[in-house]
Amino acid sequence: MTAGNSKPRRGRGSIIKRGNRYSIIVSFQDSSGNRTRKWESGFTTKRQAESRLGELLSQIENGLNIKASDTTFGKFLNEWLERYVSKRVRDSTMDGYRQRAKHIVDGLGDVSIIDLRPDHLIEYYDSKLLNLSASTITKHHHLIVDCLSDAVKWNLVGRNVGIAVVNLPGPLKRDDGTLRGRNPAIPG
């Protein structure tokens, strides 16, 4: 924070051309008040760099932790389970959560937590329809939503994308009442 000013300074950013690629550098005050810089490289066009710079500056302005962009959803999910959830639930419940987390990390683990979108979840749920029941997929969804709710509380992401997926996969019935496959997830 600056002297005489109760608000932290906004982030500032620059775009630098390096060879045939562009890099961005963002300077901002972190949550402890220390001045920090974040570099991102490898943008092939200036427009891509400008777009990403705008995203980062918006995140800083909204109080989000831009270091979260380096965190994958899988890494956050596993850390959240072990550091936070494991202290609040029984061992048998935790075993079930870990089993679900294995599936979730296999399908969504490489996505950056700040880049996670409802369509990622829909694609994941649809891919699991062949091997898992609709009720198991619903349990996966609840774990994802709970995890992302805490990520929002902790300013890692701006919104919980899990709540945007309201129609989870489930069995469809034919006119005669027999099952005919499953209903793909639909965003709400």
Overview of the structural elements:
This protein has 188 residues and is of the alpha+beta class. The protein has 2 domains: 12-63; 70-187, DNA polymerase, domain 1 (Orthogonal Bundle), CATH 1.10.150.130. Helix content is 40%, strand content 21%. The protein has a 3-stranded antiparallel sheet with strand order 1-2-3, with helices on one face. It has a two-stranded antiparallel ribbon with strand order 4-7. The model is unreliable at 1-9 (pLDDT under 50).
Series of H and E elements: EEEHHHHHEEEE
Tally of discrete structural domains:
2
Helix vs. strand class: alpha+beta
| Beta-strand residue fraction | 15-25%
Any guess at the CATH architecture of the largest domain?
Orthogonal Bundle
Major sheet: arrangement of strands: 1-2-3
How widely separated are the two ends?
A: 41 Å
* CATH T-level topology of the largest domain: DNA polymerase, domain 1
Rg over alpha carbons: 20 Å
Record keyword descriptors for this entry.
globular; 7 strands; two-stranded antiparallel sheet; disordered N terminus; DNA polymerase, domain 1; alpha+beta; 3-stranded antiparallel beta sheet; single chain; 5 helices; 2 domains
What is the element layout, followed by pairings?
Elements: E1 12-18, E2 21-29, E3 35-43, H1 46-61, H2 73-83, H3 91-108, H4 118-128, H5 134-153, E4 165-167, E5 170-173, E6 179-183, E7 186-187
Antiparallel strand pairs: 1-2, 2-3, 4-7, 5-6
